[in-house]
Structure formats: structure tokens, C-alpha cells
Predict the 3D structure of the following.
Amino acid sequence: MPGGARCHGTGSRPVLRKASDTRPARAGVGRVPTENRSPRMIKSPDPRLPSDVLFLLWAMGHGDEVAVVDPSYFTDADGDEHVAGTVVRMDGVDVAQAMRAVLSGLQLDTTFVAHPVRQIRRGGSRPRHRLRRAVQVEVDEALGFSCPITAVAEPEFRAQVQNCYALIVTGDARRRGAFIVRKGLDVTPDSVLLPPGGRGR
């Protein structure tokens, strides 16, 4: 991967937590080599992130994943779509804007996986498609080096979404595609790992 370290998959699946579980995120696995560190490790959250979405991103542990989808993701499903994680909404933004906001609230895992961002394989998943290119720019800018998004067949993608820590539904009614983002080494201060409205220590 140009400019970044090689990523090695661990084969482990994300650890699911109940929506009511507000424990601090677990510590990252191992140390990030110096060459992996991005100048944007300490994030400045996008103001479009609602407080409940921002808390979910901060509460996620290393290796947890979050999906970003448009409303058509559910209407396109065959039968009932079961989601184990917490479902939250980001009204007023499209998928590309939501992805930009999400990437401002977490650090991608480029240490243990080769593709920390995956997209459902549809027409919009072609590398030269406008949506794909827009999100790819955000991913590369967030990391400070190129990290190609990979497309995943729809049945496999939906199976992976079922294991996500959270699912963010945008307010864009257009059929724009869906992404899964894997969180890397946690850099969130313990002081902010409190539920919205929670009391400090």
C-alpha cells in the first residue's frame, strides 16, 4: 500500500456490544509503527455528526465496524433485514457527506486489515464512479496516504453489516450505495467516553 504499512488480517470478527453498554472502548491491539501514524490521528469531529453518532464512534473498540447506508438499503433487502448493532440516523446528509463526517470521528484500521473501507458492489462501486471517487478522496485524506476501497458482493456485504457495531442511515433518498468502515487504534480520551447527557468522573 503506497505510503502506508502493510496490513495483515487477523481473521477475527468484530465484538458486538449491546446498545446500552457504555463501557470505555477497549485498548488497541499492539502499537502502531511510527510510519503508520497519520498527522490527523487526533480528530476534529465534523460538526454534522449528531451527538449520538459521535458517541457511538468514540465508544467503538479497535476492530469494530460501522456501516453507512442510504434508506434504499432496507427497501432493497429480501425479507426482513436483521441488524445486530445500534441503528442511528443522519438526516440531511447524503452518503458521501456522512462518510466524510464518520472519518472525522475515528481512525481507520490500516494495521491489521488491507481494506478498512468496503463498499457494496453495485453500479456506484466502480472505481471511476463519482460517489466512489468522492469517498476515496476522503479516505486517503483522512489517512494521509492511499488506501483503496474494495467492493464486496451484496450478499456478503449484508452479512457483514449484520455484525457491525452500528449502522448509520442517511437522509438521502437516492440509491447511492453503502459502506463499511473498520475502526483502528483508539485515540479517544477516556473523558469523552460517556453516554450523551452522562456525568463526568
